[in-house]
Amino acid sequence: MSLIAITEVKKRFGDNEVLKGISIDIAPGEVVAIIGRSGSGKSTLLRCINGLETIDEGSIVVAGAQFLPDEVHLKALRLKVGMIFQQFNLFPHLTAGGNVMLSQMVVKKVPKKDAEAVARKMLDRVGLAHKFDALPDELSGGQQQRVAIARALAMQPMALLCDEITSALDPELVAEVLAVVKELAAEGMTLVMVTHEMRFARDVCSRVVFMHQGRVHEIGAPEDVFANPRTPELRQFLGVQ
Amino acid sequence: MTYHFDFGWLIESLPVLLKGIRITVQLILIGAVFGVALGIACAWVRALGPKWLRPVVATYVELIRNTPFLIQLFFIFFGLPSLGIRMSELTAANLAMIVNLGAYSCEIIRAGIQATPRGQFEAGASLAMTPFQTFWYVVLVPALQRIWPALSSQIVIVMLGSAVVSQIAAEDLTFAANFIQSRNFRAFETYIVSTLIYLALAILLRQLLAGLGWMLFPRKASR
Q1: Which ipTM value was assigned to this complex?
Q2: For residues A208 and A221, is the Cβ–Cβ distance under 8 A?
Q3: Which of B120, B126, B136 to mutate to test the interface with A (most CBs of A within 10 A)?
């Protein structure tokens, strides 16, 4: 039984078809890396799973929640999948703790005291318990991204979508974020990540999806995809002859 | 010829003057609170609200921003009674100031909302917040922070502009000054005193708004 079922999804921006019929099933606990060149549609696919983009054809179902473009269905879908962005997108006027508390209180109507307890727990989980009262401005990029992860986790999602979450970070800050993600994977969280961290994809992921021109070009276990690329496009992307 | 300054009238005119100050302060406090609230609502409609409502708000905003405040005041106080809508001078003055500030602050606040990075809306949405929740809890405060100096200036402009409500016999500070001057014939002294009071009120108001901003926006000194 798959947790995320993506079936024949097509997406157009005007005349430009960016997703040309994508089908992927993701089981609970899987860690899936989506790789590919820019423009291959990998970020768009991820954003569709969270309903940030509409789809033109096909269906996306996450744990029984079908993606339909109305407020009720979108809310149900987004309660199942959290999303983490390249640019962190923390709320600048709230402290780290406030960022993690807000959606619990607004969306789930959790009382402030309980939301704070959850926020402290989640910040502790990403190693930032001591930064509860810090504003985003006062945190490094890596710390901001870890707060963003805590914020998504506080909503208790069944899966997390990571959209190039280390691409905006200085090289020395990448490791601390990936360490958190690795830990989540080890705890059994279902993860779908668009990433350029090939070594991370090889070490942590259970499956790798190579997208090319709006299609799933190759898919398989990382050992196979990285060691034996079957198509010239993937070989070129990986830089192997 | 030498002019002899005489401020002796101040003592007996003090009650009139104080009442004028009280009315002016009351006008600006009510005008600012409800005017900015109206401005926030209108800015939401114009930037993010239902499409069918946008032309309505746009018409209101352009109508107010392209006509004189005095005419708006006269229309409310002298024009509306023809339709059976009657109100006291003070109510008319309050209403005129709210409607006027509402339109100007709408455009200022809208600029603040539209400068919000897209990622903020997406982060709100991805956390299952509705568009309105995202606006209210995520977008609004940083948007106000961005335009706070401009909004503060506009509120002070409206406060100074409130002098014209004396034209419909609302007993504000200017009304009081005119009244006192018509009794003591000491135009220079009377108007210099009222000028200084307006100056003090404006400075006080700016300080108040700066303090309010300091409370609303808990950001550490960034740039």
Answers
A1: 0.93
A2: yes
A3: B126
Residue B40 CA to residue B105 CA, distance in Å, equals 8
Looking at the complex, report in whole angstroms how far the Cα of residue B157 sits from the nearest Cα belonging to chain A. 28
Q: Token pair for residue A53?
A: 């983009």
Inter-chain touch B129–A89, beta carbons under 8 Å: no
In chain A, what are the domain boundaries? 4-90+159-238
User: Tens digit of pLDDT per residue, chain B (223 long)?
Assistant: 688 888 888 888 999 999 999 999 999 999 999 999 999 999 999 999 999 999 999 999 999 999 999 999 999 999 999 999 999 999 999 999 999 999 999 999 999 999 999 999 999 999 999 999 999 999 999 999 999 999 999 999 999 999 999 999 899 999 999 999 999 888 899 999 999 999 999 999 999 999 999 999 876 644 4
Instruction: Tell me if the pTM is above 0.95.
Output: no
In order of A145, A203, B56, B117, B120, the CA distances from A170 in angstroms are: 12, 21, 48, 22, 22
Q: Hey, which residues does A216 pair with through a beta bridge?
A: A211
Task: Give the CATH architecture of domain A4-90+159-238.
Answer: 3-Layer(aba) Sandwich (3.40)
CA separation for the pair A89, A112 (Å, rounded): 22
Cβ A148 vs Cβ A52: under 8 Å: no
Spell out the domains of chain B, with CATH numbers in brackets.
9-216 (1.10.3720.10)
